[in-house]
């Protein structure tokens, strides 16, 4: 009963097999092999546009370097106050940008509130140096709390962002989970909705270590080859990333893996709705389920072998758990077994 | 006939197999699994001391973060003027240290000259802020030009370094190649010879992507967990590195791979010594062979399918190639086939 | 009628005269002259303790370098959400610390709420790298909104800060204004109340350009000579700062200047309390007065020659101005003329 | 007999008087006053072109921020190996650029050798990320060893620099001394000869603390307001810098001060040429004289009250002092008294 994180999973079979298959033989290093080049081409096709793509090793790197590419002195990035960028990167975005600030924006259910965003952006006079200057807006899709922005919501945000001549970044650590939930094409969920830079995550959805930074406005990527190398993210044997991503995209493996993870979360949520011992904090849309459980009962479940974390109430939440209760996060993954869920629901009661 | 770089090789079979074997199942993320912990323990045993070890994804990261751990304001690192740190990291060490300088030291055959080092270190008055302050000395083992420091040479350098109360860093991207050449234990070639921090490379010697930063003085590593995470080098599925390193160390695989690479280089060097068409620039000791060839002949060899790079004459070299000739680098690897070498030597004439 | 900022004033007469007096003759540069040394000694006497003091040119530098001295990877500084550090430094503290974050803490009237501070600090597990680690707490004395922390409030904050083994920094850009209001000695308002590092400002209170960073725990200052030089804040002709500070401290000039500024603010506040056209937003304690005025009336006053700025309502304020009204900031200085205030109050009605 | 540094001098009388004159009254802060604006206009007129000028407090800041404005990831700046930038800034340029490297170029008498520069620049393939990328070339005028580049030499350097599409920066800490020696207009010695960015120093030539960064290609300065504020170099009471510079430029005061300093150096050099006890290391052209003296005699002179520093032999020098002799630097300033020189020459013998 593993619901701690989708990071606890290993690699999907076809991805492990692809790595083995590409282990032999000599091949140019540092992203210059045929395999690397063909992968770049595949991303162009997948997103139906001319883009620039850079492969890196961690989601932290993808987000931090995407922001470095659009960095400005005294700049800051507006993002949701519970964003991974702010809460879980140990200051990496600030470090890689030599001191940019992450400015929190409010909003329910992990989504930036468009009015709050507009209000914060209107505050800045480009000639008033003391406050610094906004340099980008970043949204998370799927959000940190298992919800998604639909296309209309994306367009409303990107409209505001572009009105202020800023780029819109999407942290897509769980891009696939959002995509299959919304049943959109990659293009529809990104540049057609106004996204300029994307962190496209493969790791949480079945890769070992495969992340891509995608620039839909190639002029933003001009310095990226140097930014990536200087950031220690240009791997020598790049085919180990390319081999993962090729398998990930072949035969829509990635969409199948994400659909499975989401379906497992839905199965869990349905069970919880039926339970008298737990309550959904809000309706999940992807592979994260947030649940309110009496603390003593949660501890019993953990003692019985269920792995899940207590989670802080989101800053903007109005749903504080009642006395004696706690909020808990359950994450499903490409390799969650329905039997695990049923076992858990049986214990939950 | 691939002699471009040991980075052009993929992964050794046992390493690819280990990865596949560990692909399934759930396991705690971010370096906290049993597999990670056991690997840390193995490094303690391998080096016969209590050490702190941090796994990262690239050699650039290993070097840059090792130096970050000992960083000081206005600090600089003395290293050989042809060091990888200076020549091939795109400013990553400077970036991760927020501006430390790499100060070049002279020396023949890729080794720092002890007298030159002593002279440079004596220049600094700790109370004179204008010049900045030395913060570390870094040596490369094996060096960038295929040679090694023997134990006496290491001790002479470390003696000077410690006299100035500085830590000694060893860039061991080709640690195994040096170790088997000298026939020493890992402890003898590092802390017993005065090395304080080591970049222990696995990638060039048969791993996909596996590097370790090892602190023989654990007090230097206190901030490393935060330094690594902030540098985007804390991988979520760390078992993908651990699985590589376990296989790498099992049954001394790593030593065998390095012996093979070195033997292939020796075979190539022997052939070159016999050839009338080429000359060794100097005697190689590990898996890199530097050769002087007439430029036109080199181009013919490349046209015939031999992959190798022209190489700049080291800054301190007195062996400038004669008119019409060039210096070329040949690198062998764990998977170099003796037949390739013989084919090449046949073409060379 | 100049109430825009105490930065609009020039230099007090004795300070300008001191500069002229020291203009002639040769004197060692970079902080090594007798004048510099004697000034350091004076600060030791003024604060009745052994301290380390470093002179710099701007308040931004004083705050940023004070924090640099206690910097940690992934570190952040807790400060009031309306602190100058966050609102008005264009990211300088983040830049000089290579990416430390300024984490906002709530609190009424510009003062950090001790409970909010304790709650935020308790959140951090020193072994959980994802969140980063607190590295200091910074308070502003006098605060950004013209109030002060009294000794009990300082001790309550420092108690919490030290319980978490963090240093407490005080941004004393308006140190003198707070000191004379509280009628304390410099020692009582700083190290005796638990302050570890102080930005001691002279510029806003009658100097041209004179700021000092004072370390009450000298071990924190070990790297400061290099930090300051690297930050371009080691002036060559340091006697131009020393000459200002000597005059500033002679015969308690600084206390007199601050008393005058505070008295002028009190005169203004008293007049406003009597006026039917304006209301104090809250009771000022130093030289900044925050006033609610009908917007149209404020514009009339500005047209008539009164210089003052509209000011955003503090984030934690519950006193939003009524419809059609605005919040305005009035700052008095060492050279404010009572006649200006009376003229303004006459216009205000 | 003060020949230690031109930094040991204070402020010229008209500059001290100007500061006193502007001490009274209220004036907008942060560079927005009439006095500031008029000064910007004066620099446009002085240089006969539309330029952008930014005032800062130290020469270290001027150089570091000029380079920050043209910074690139993995970038480095080529400058003379004895440049102040490399030798005397404690890593400030590297720090402010978040890790740019200063790459040393050879050349006699403090001047970059055009052939050496061309050779280094030709080495870089813009698509090869490992080496990093050149981002600027910086020259020092007058050089660190008291010589100057004449117009032809400037144009030869700038021709090479522009061929590689890089900006040329001039460190003009002793700009005035070079200008009066060459008898050129400011325009002729800068943008008409291909200089793109200038650090214009006032401090060493009679100001307290007054430096300007001048961009002859205003598009390079777009981010400078934020760069300067973030660097803690936007002073609040900017009129204290403006007042200095106005007096500095009034009635060509600055040229007179520099002519005096140069004349004093010439007087000293002439005396040394006549002396049997000392020898000029090379012919000085501005206000720095480098002299070879027997070490014991030099110590006698210092004991007799002459203040001057031993100086390291320049890296490219072929004029190593003979056994028992040392190289010494003598700097004259705007306030050097001819009697001091004659007294010194008398002692020298």
TrEMBL record, chains A, B, C, D:
InterPro entries: ArAA_b-elim_lyase/Thr_aldolase, Low_specificity_L-TA_bact, PyrdxlP-dep_Trfase, PyrdxlP-dep_Trfase_major, PyrdxlP-dep_Trfase_small. Keywords: Lyase, Pyridoxal phosphate. It comes from the Bacteria. One of its GO terms (biological process) is L-threonine catabolic process. Coiled coil: none annotated. It catalyses: L-threonine = acetaldehyde + glycine; L-allo-threonine = acetaldehyde + glycine. The keyword Lyase applies. Pfam families: Beta_elim_lyase (PF01212). Its cofactor is pyridoxal 5'-phosphate. Residues 3-294 form the Aromatic amino acid beta-eliminating lyase/threonine aldolase domain. Its EC number is 4.1.2.48. One of its GO terms (molecular function) is L-allo-threonine aldolase activity. It is an enzyme of class 4 (lyase). Belongs to the threonine aldolase family. Catalyzes the cleavage of L-allo-threonine and L-threonine to glycine and acetaldehyde. This is L-threonine aldolase. It comes from Rhodopirellula islandica. The lineage of its organism: Bacteria, Pseudomonadati, Planctomycetota, Planctomycetia, Pirellulales.
